[in-house]
TrEMBL record:
It holds the Pfam family DALR_1. Keywords: Aminoacyl-tRNA synthetase, ATP-binding, Cytoplasm, Ligase, Nucleotide-binding, Protein biosynthesis. It comes from marine sediment metagenome. This is arginine--tRNA ligase. One of its GO terms (biological process) is arginyl-tRNA aminoacylation. The keyword Nucleotide-binding applies. GO terms for cellular component: cytoplasm.
Amino acid sequence: RFFLLARSADSQMDFDLDLAKEQSDENPVYYIQYAHARICSILRYAGGLDYSDGEVSLLTSEPELHLIRRMVRLPEVVRTAAVHLAPHHLTYYAQDLAGAFHAFYRDCRVVSSFPEDEAINKARLKLVSACRIVLARVLGLMGMNAPEAM
């Protein structure tokens, strides 16, 4: 389904079955779904930590801000896809958002065991929780599942 949506209606379809079956970062579906599953794993690892009072103003690093900027684009992307009957905008957005999350995860420790990191832990958990919702929504809009584990 993703591979059908990933091309504009006026472009030629080039379907790579081997890529579609591959479970690696080269497969865009796997890459996007893995971002969602990784977030679910982080939230499970955080366990009972209540991050609802996480202070998002603490999120000032470039990877954090880049992820936020990508997340807030969802309504604009949905509107563009709908107005222009161009669902490929959703696939590009999903890949971009997954890439922003993976970069954030690589560069920022989400859960630290140091007591002095509690405030930033809560803020980052709040951020990844919001990202999980956005990824799940865009996957749902494309008719795909958002796995909690892979």
